[in-house]
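Kindly inspect the following:
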Amino acid sequence: MKFSLIVFVCVLILAVSVEANESNQPPVAIQTSDPSQNWFFESESVVFSSSSSYDPDGYIAERKWYINGVYQSASTTLSKCFVLFGTTGTSCYQLGSGATSVSIKLEVKDNAGEWRSSTVSYTIRAEKARRYFVTDHLGSVRTTVDWDGNVLGHDDYYPFGLSMPGRSVNTANPDDNYKFTGYEKEDEGGLNLYHANARSYDPILGRFNQIDKFHDKYPFSSPYSYTLNSPTNFTDVTGDTVDVSNLSSDEQKQLINSLAEVTGYSKEQFKIENGILTVSKSEKTKDGVELKYASPVGGSSTARKDLGEAINSTNVINVISHPTLTGVPNTEGGSNDILIQFRDANERAKNVSAGLNPETLGIGLTFFHELQHTAAFGTKKDPLVAATGITGEVVDHVNTIRRELDANSVFGPLYLQRIQYGVVR
C-alpha cells in the first residue's frame, strides 16, 4: 500500500512538471546597438545591448553574446570596436581577410530554461579619413595614399583589367569598386564582371557580353572586343542618347539635381550638349590637364546601371515635359518618350509622409520608373489594379533602388518601399 502511494505521488509531480513546461512561453531575444545603425566605421566604439529582450511569463535569467559564432560574454551589454583585416596596433576585433561584415548573435534564457537567439549582421567601413587614389594613364587606381602620402594599398592589373593575385593589396577601402578605368566592379554571384555603363565587361575573357552599338564603324573588329584589343592604350567610350532638349533649362536643372541624388554622381558630372544628357568621368582644364571625378558617393548602383544603359542605348530616349501627364505613351511596338509632369512630381515629393525622403516620389525616381516602360527597356507594365501587396515588376525594380539608397544613407530621411502600386511605406 505504501509503495503504491509513493508511485502515485511521483507520477502526479511529473505530470504537473510536464504541464508547466508545455505552458511556458519562450523568451524573446532583441539586440540593439549604439550607434543605432547597420554599419560602423573602423575603430568606432559600439555598445550592443540585450536590455530590450523579455520573457512574456517570467524573466530573463541568462544571456550570451557571440561574434562570428565565437562566445564573448554573458553580460547585459557587449562593448566592441572592429577593424578590417591587416590593421595593426589595435585591440579591436579584426575581421578576416576580405571580410567587410561581422555577425553578432545574442542568446537569452528564461527562468524555465528555454533559450532563444537573435543574429544581426553589421557592415564595417574603412575609418572616416581622407584618402587619395593615384591613377595611371588609363584612369585605373594603382595606389591609395593618406593625407601624409603614406601608401595604404596598391592595385595591379593584367592588361584587360583582371586584378593580379598577390599584387592587389588594398584594404584601405575595400568597399571601393571603381578601380580599373573607373568601371564599377560587380561581384554578385562571383562573376567578377565590370559594369561599363550600357554593357557588362568580363576582364578574364577581355570581351564585352553585349554587342557594341557602334560596331558598324569598326567592321574589322569583333563587336564584343574591348578597346580594339589594345587595352594598354585606350579605354571604352560611352554613348549619348538621352535627349532632354524638350525640357526648359530649369527643368533640366531639376532633373540633374534629382538624378545626382539617386545615382550618387556629382551634379558637375552631368553634361547637356545640344540637348543630349551625358555623365562624364573626367574633365579637362583650360591647360589640357585631365581631372578625374571621384567615385560616386552613396546612391544606387542599380540606378547608375539603368542610367548608363539609357545613355548608351541604340534608341533615343526623349524626356518631355508635359502639363498634365506622366508616363510613356501606349503606342504599338512601345515608345521611348518619357512624359513627366514636373509640377505634379514636385508636389508629390513635397507632400510625402513625415520621415520620408522627398526624392522617394521625386523627379529622379519618377524617371527611373517610367524608363522601365520604354521600348528600350522592354515595355514593362504596371498592375491593372492598385491593391495591397500588388506591386508589379516596375515598382519592384524601383524598390531595389530605394533599398540601395537606404543602405547607403548615412544621415537623413529614408526612401523605404512602395507596398503597392501607388503607395509608399
Q: What stands out?
A: Helices lie at 2-22, 249-263, 301-311, 342-350, 363-371, 393-407.
